[in-house]
Automatic annotation (TrEMBL):
It comes from Patella caerulea. The lineage of its organism: Eukaryota, Metazoa, Spiralia, Lophotrochozoa, Mollusca. Keywords: Coiled coil. This is Uncharacterized protein. PANTHER family: UBIQUITIN-LIKE PROTEASE FAMILY PROFILE DOMAIN-CONTAINING PROTEIN, ULP_PROTEASE DOMAIN-CONTAINING PROTEIN. Residues 125-159 form a coiled coil.
Length: 585
């Protein structure tokens, strides 16, 4: 059987140790290597290490020393065991006289043949070492078991002691101990104090019953402990309570406190939070939230909680709920919008009409079923057609809003509209530094104060353009769907839907403070789009540091898209473009 690498290395080291010169040369080489590694810094001395490394090094030295001592002790025990149990050596054969060799008399001497005996001695020694090693392993295992059961016993004892110390004596045991101590003439002051405590407690319970807390006090007294020691009659006599009042009731006594907000109020608040004018539902498939295995679609509040509270109280004047209770009763799926939840690409016509429609619903001038722009437009037209939406239908061309009560037309109200406005700003000239007033155009959400009739008139003025706008929107969506369906079955047709994103600002991972101000940050333009080819849907995005949005810039951004189509889809011959249609495009 070939030797293992470890055995070959051990034999090589044994041969070196057997030769004095080779062993000396080996030690010198090792010493030189050690000095070389120390001088180059590969091996650090204990003084050059950190405090933590010193502690780790000392700990490793301590473990190595312990292993060395254990190995040394085991070797010594093995040698002693072998000396005690090995066979005595055989006597050496007498050598023939020297004269016989000198004069050639007799046969030549032969060395004794002890190979078989040495082999048996080696086998016995190996067998003994293995047996000793096995016994030592069994001994260590038994010692570990003994230690384990010792610790388990100590834990059980300590647990029982703690249990005995923590347990309280029963009332009868305490009473018997007190009687025994009193009979021996001791603990007179303790007996006196116990009796004073008894009479004081009874008197206190009587006073509590006189203050109108009879039901609660009776339930506290009529416990199972009094019934166990047959003291219910004694308690009835001392506290003057009838038998009917001292009935043993199982279970804890429920706290009779404030009943809280009525259930009808909670349902009304929940319905208010789920209204479309109070919160809007998120349309995404993953825009859900789950609590206690109850999965709901997330809704986002359209206003602050304080404003919504005032709105709720103005609509429900017959009930009163505090602001904190109103906030606490907000459902978990109705959340305030965060920065990422804001809608920043809303249509101005839709939003202005939606603000007026929501105000009509809140004033109860129209049904809540028509609280959205689409449902409101459908309620004004007899059917969804080009003639109806363009005001050419004879039945519904005179679109007007009917109010159930005309007495409210003169009432004052407030509504909001997105409007273009001008703002004066003060700037300083770069050359002279003199101040200069400039007018800039801004878009604000304007608060308008007027009568209900004026608000309705404002909405009626928007209805023709709104109906035309809604029709165009639906018609475009319908044609886009038909075009995608047609191109999905044609391998030579493709659709490119493009749109410009807003300019993005690039930032450094770590930057100095002065970079934050001025024009140090570079802005880039993202040209996003999506490519429909057959059944494939491929999104793409090009990035450019040029902030131009004109025709040349659009074509430059689409040039790599054309190269991709010609390379991967050579059969495409017709391209259909879809965009939001800004004036520059």
């Amino acid at each position: 059987m070939p030797l293992k690498a470890k055995e070959r290395a051990q034999r090589y080291r044994d041969r070196i140790k057997a030769d004095t010169d080779r062993h000396k040369t080996y030690l010198e080489n090792e010493r030189e290597g050690w000095l070389k590694r120390t001088n180059t810094g590969k091996v650090k001395s204990i003084d050059d290490l950190s405090e933590r490394a010193k502690r780790q090094k000392c700990k490793a030295w301590k473990k190595a020393s312990q292993r060395y001592q254990v190995k040394k002790r085991e070797t010594r025990q093995i040698e002693e065991y072998i000396q005690l149990n090995s066979l005595p050596t055989s006597p050496v054969d007498l050598e023939p006289p020297a004269q016989a060799f000198a004069f050639g008399v007799g046969p030549a001497p032969r060395p004794p043949n002890n190979r078989g005996r040495r082999r048996m001695h080696h086998l016995n020694r190996s067998r003994t070492v293995r047996k000793l090693h096995k016994v030592e392993q069994e001994l260590k295992q038994q010692e570990r078991l003994v230690e384990k059961y010792k610790k388990r016993l100590n834990r059980l004892k300590s647990k029982e002691i703690k249990k005995m110390l923590s347990e309280k004596d029963s009332p009868r045991t305490k009473t018997n101990r007190l009687i025994r101590e009193f009979g021996n003439g001791n603990m007179t002051s303790k007996v006196r104090k116990t009796l004073i405590f008894h009479h004081t407690l009874v008197e206190e319970l009587k006073q509590k019953r006189k203050k109108g807390r009879q039901a609660k006090l009776n339930s506290r007294i009529s416990g199972k402990v009094l019934a166990k020691y047959r003291l219910l009659d004694e308690a009835r006599k001392q506290l003057k309570i009838s038998r009917r009042q001292l009935q043993v009731k199982g279970g804890p006594v429920k706290k009779q406190g404030n009943p809280g907000i009525p259930r009808t109020y909670k349902e009304r608040i929940l319905t208010f939070y789920e209204r479309d004018d109070v919160s809007r539902i998120k349309p995404g498939k993953r825009d859900t939230i789950t609590k206690q295995k109850n999965k709901k679609q997330i809704r986002l509040l359209t206003d602050t909680l304080l404003n919504l509270y005032n709105k709720f109280m103005s609509e429900n004047t017959f009930i009163w709920v505090s602001y904190s209770s109103f906030c606490n009763l907000r459902p978990f799926w109705v959340k305030p919008p965060s920065l990422k939840d804001r809608d920043t690409c809303q249509c101005k016509r839709h939003e202005n009409a939606q603000l007026l429609i929501e105000k009509l619903v809140s004033l109860k001038l129209t049904s809540s079923a028509f609280s959205s722009v689409d449902t409101f437009v459908d309620s004004l037209c007899c059917k969804f057609s080009l003639e109806c939406m363009m005001g050419k239908c004879e039945q519904c061309q005179d679109k007007s809003i009917k109010v159930p009560d005309e007495n409210v037309l003169d009432n004052r109200t407030v509504w909001y509209q997105w409007e273009n406005s001008k703002k004066s700003v003060v700037t300083a000239k770069k050359s002279s530094g003199a101040e200069e007033i400039k007018e800039i155009k801004i878009v604000v959400k304007q608060k308008i104060d007027g009568s209900v009739q004026e608000m309705i008139k404002c909405l009626e003025e928007q209805i023709p353009e709104l109906c035309e706008h809604v029709y165009n929107l639906r018609h475009q969506f319908h044609l886009s769907k038909l075009l995608k369906t047609y191109c999905s079955s044609k391998s030579d047709h493709a659709i490119i839907h493009i749109d410009f994103s807003e300019n993005w600002e690039s930032k450094y991972g770590n930057e100095i403070q002065s970079v934050h101000f001025g024009g140090s940050h570079v802005q880039v333009t993202l040209h996003t789009g999506i490519l429909y080819i057959a059944e494939d849907c491929i999104p793409f995005c090009t990035i450019s540091d040029a902030r131009r949005h004109d025709l040349q810039a659009i074509w430059a951004n689409l040039d790599p898209v054309f190269s991709y189509i010609s390379q991967h889809y050579p059969d495409v011959r017709y391209l259909h473009f879809q965009s939001d249609g800004p004036s520059t495009q």
